[in-house]
Each structure stands twice: as structure tokens, then as C-alpha cells.
């Protein structure tokens, strides 16, 4: 097995064993999973997982506080970082989402508390609408996958709304 395949398997294991379908108890980890879903839009999940360490390094370990403080110069540095996905809209959305999370933390004690206990709705359609008004770059599929990944909705609930090809 090549080194690259070994790394890919490690990240697959992290996501499938430690994250997917499990409740997340760290605000920064919940932000990371949300942001990785945003960066994955239009790309393969494998590509995102292969770049996870680069993302963690480039985006301050997914520290909400740090990312919320990014300005134009940090965004431009990220746009020029070939180790991550350099899409300007995804990067700007991630920064704006971190700023929105700071407001949620101040109002509700933590991002996790807001996400699991305060965010209104129990079914995907109503949760999706709330997410789209709260966060940037939070389309239907990104919302669905994030809600399932973080166990806000059951996998069966999310599968009901899987795009049909």
C-alpha cells in the first residue's frame, strides 16, 4: 500500500469511525465538520479527507475564534495555498460562518448547545431552512450531509432527501 493510500485510509477511518453519525461535543470540531462539508461541495469527499491536515494547519486548527478574526490578508494567503481548496467563496463563507458562530456562542453558551438543543426543528426541511438563513454556502446537500454527519438528523431521515440521479 502506498503512503498516499495509507493516509487516505487514515482519514477515511477518522471520518467514518470518529465523526460520521455521532454527536459532536466540541464547538471547533463541529465547525470543522461543517466547513469540510462546505469545501467538499462539487468535489470528492476523498479529496477533502486527503487535505484534512493541510486544512487544519492553514485554517488555524479550525479554531472558531481565530478564523473569525481572519481579514482580507489571511483570506488571500489561503487563496494562494495550494495544499487546500482555494475557492474564494468557500473560504470567505468559512470566515463568515465562524463569525456567525461567535454570535451563537455568546447567545447560547456554545455552538454545540445551539446546534443540538436550540436550533428549531427536528426534520431536515425545517432544519435546512434555518441553516441556510444562519450560514453562508449552506445549500440543501451540504446541510443534509452536515446534519447526518453530526447526528442532528438520523441517517434514515437524511436518506429520504438524498438527491436522485
Q: How would you sum up this structure, described in words?
A:
- The chain has 165 residues and is mainly alpha-helical.
- It is built from eleven helices and no strands.
- It is globular and about 40 Å long.
- The chain has one domain: Hypothetical protein, domain 2 (Endonuclease III, domain 1).
- Helix 2 (27-40) runs antiparallel to helix 10 (140-149) and helix 7 (88-108) packs across helix 8.
- The mean pLDDT is 89.
- The protein has helices spanning 3-19, 27-40, 45-50, 52-58, 64-68, 72-79, 88-108, 111-118, 124-134, 140-149, 155-160.
- The relative contact order is 0.14.
- It starts with a helix and ends in a 5-residue tail after the last helix.
- It is 68% helix and 0% strand.
Amino acid at each position: 500500500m502506498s503512503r498516499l493510500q495509507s493516509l487516505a485510509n487514515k482519514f477515511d477511518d477518522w471520518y467514518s469511525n470518529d465523526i460520521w453519525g455521532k454527536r459532536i461535543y466540541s464547538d471547533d470540531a463541529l465547525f470543522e465538520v461543517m466547513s469540510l462539508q462546505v469545501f467538499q461541495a462539487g468535489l470528492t469527499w476523498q479529496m477533502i479527507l486527503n487535505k484534512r491536515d493541510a486544512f487544519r494547519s492553514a485554517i488555524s486548527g479550525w479554531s472558531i475564534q481565530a478564523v473569525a478574526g481572519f481579514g482580507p490578508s489571511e483570506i488571500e494567503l489561503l487563496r494562494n495555498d495550494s495544499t487546500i481548496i482555494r475557492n474564494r467563496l468557500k473560504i470567505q463563507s468559512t470566515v463568515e460562518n465562524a463569525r456567525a458562530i461567535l454570535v451563537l456562542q455568546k447567545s447560547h453558551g456554545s455552538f454545540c448547545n445551539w446546534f443540538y438543543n436550540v436550533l428549531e426543528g427536528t426534520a431536515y426541511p425545517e432544519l435546512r431552512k434555518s441553516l441556510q438563513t444562519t450560514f453562508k454556502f449552506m445549500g440543501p446537500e451540504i446541510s443534509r450531509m452536515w446534519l447526518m454527519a453530526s447526528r442532528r438528523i438520523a441517517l434514515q431521515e437524511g436518506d429520504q432527501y438524498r438527491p436522485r440521479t
